[in-house]
Design brief:
2 copies of one chain form a homodimer.
Chain A: H1 2-6, H2 12-26, H3 31-44, E1 53-54, H4 56-63, H5 67-79, E2 83-86, E3 90-93, H6 98-117, H7 123-141, H8 145-161, H9 166-183, H10 189-194, H11 197-208, H12 212-244
Antiparallel strand pairs in A: 1-3, 2-3
Helix pairs in contact in A: 3-5, 6-8, 6-9, 6-12, 7-8, 7-11, 8-9, 11-12
Chain B binds a DNA duplex through residues 30-32, 55-57, 65-69, 71-72, 85, 87-90.
DNA sequence: GCATATTTGTCCGTATGTATA
DNA sequence: CTATACATACGGACAAATATG
């Protein structure tokens, strides 16, 4: 566990190849941000599961950073809603309720539908959507289910990008990060994402045809379906855990 | 405070002494949080104007807190997007660009229009909108322009509340907080808010009549108008300041 | 219920690197 | 080039709350 957490961080230089591009855009990163990056990756990949307590001492000594720096990283992730802070008890990986899932999809429908409806004015944005669809189809051929899920995320990020608003992009990123906390409760992530691959292609075709309202109708339907599917699986999964907590 | 607003491009007389008076108010919550409260109030009321650098020694010695604690407060306000951190230069009161204003209104139109379109199902939400309209009309009668501005904020917060989503509420709150940084550059805030008072009433009437699309059309029109007005005034005001910065 | 150790909350001083005058 | 001011990060001290036996 200690090594798994420590992993990167100690020597950013040699792993910098993949991260260098991101870093160039964001400018230099502080230690707290790098710590947050490591923890965020561990959380989104499911290594730290929802409900897990992140003790200052353990994480701090594993990563070799001081408490102050670590707490700053905690604050960043708390602001992203990936962690929750309980007074004098520490920070925990966020556990979403069913209400959270419903609200997340409510916001997604609001944002994504509005973005796709007003599309057509931006060939640049449509191209990013097409790239995400192609990425998903390649992942499908390679039977790489994790990449399939990532591609699906990119698709919806690209859909939101059609709004042409930095703040909407940022919001969408936060929404998807939160949803990743839920995706881990799905028994079979492959089937979940697989089902929407053809749907994404259909939506893209409508966008390319300049049929914004048509694309919106399809998207709304798929989002409703995904929400239902997710709420079902999630309610089942958590009913047992919640009973075991008291 | 009033002197600082009335004061022109010169440094206000004694910001340190003014802050020292706030020291008595520092009561029982966390020191960093209390410092953040004081600074937040000073920023939103326009005492610290956008672009002002918050010098560490001045603020720290005025409030009697250590640099480390002050930094903690700065972090809190940076997370709220009221301050910006410039690398190794310090913290500044956020200065929005014209692009920011445009993007803020882009998001507002997306959110508020979608929320008002799907209204009608919530008599509870409509009631909050009505309360905000009434609040504005009372402020108008009392010729209390500050309260008029606040009521206008509440109106749009209530409009967003029609979506029935906690995350949309929070987003709207952040959007309006950012916009407050812009409102201070308006030469005549009274006239700016006054113009939309009757508009708010019109929108409310449409909502009560169950005419979501009609309310949306009105709202979109008013938001476009406000954006244009604000961008004009803002571009004028900042062109001079930006020239004076170098 | 009580006394314990552990963990977190808060705040400080300092050392080092960096940007600006 | 030097001096100043600041950001960053660290380690530690002490209080307060929680968990444990």
């Amino acid at each position: 566990m200690t090594e798994a957490v420590a992993g990167h961080l100690r020597q950013p230089p040699d792993q910098g190849a993949a991260l260098a591009a991101d870093r160039a855009l964001l400018g230099r990163t502080s230690t707290a941000e790098r710590v947050a990056d490591v923890l965020r990756a561990r959380i989104t990949e499911g290594f730290f599961r929802p409900g897990t307590r992140l003790a200052e001492d353990m994480i701090g000594s594993s990563l070799g950073v001081s408490r102050n720096t670590l707490r700053e990283a905690f604050r960043l992730l708390t602001h992203e809603r990936l962690l929750v802070h309980e007074l004098n008890r520490g920070v925990f990986v966020r556990m979403l309720t069913v209400d959270d899932v419903v609200d997340l999809y409510r916001v997604r429908k609001l944002i994504e539908c509005a973005a796709v409806r007003g599309a057509g004015s931006s060939p640049d944005g449509a191209q990013r959507v097409a790239a995400a669809v192609a990425e998903g189809e390649r992942a499908m051929e390679d039977r790489d289910w994790q990449r399939l899920g990532t591609a699906n995320m990119h698709f919806h990020q690209a859909i939101a990008g059609l709004a042409g608003s930095p703040r909407v992009d940022e919001l969408m990123q936060a929404i998807l990060a939160e949803l990743r906390l839920v995706f881990h409760v799905m028994a079979d992530p492959r089937r979940f994402h697989e089902r929407y691959l053809t749907g994404n292609r259909e939506i893209l075709d409508r966008i390319d045809a300049g049929d914004g309202p048509g694309a919106e109708r399809l998207l709304a339907g798929y989002l409703d379906e995904a929400e239902r599917q997710l709420v079902d699986a999630y309610a089942q999964r958590t009913s047992g855990e919640q009973a075991a907590r008291h």
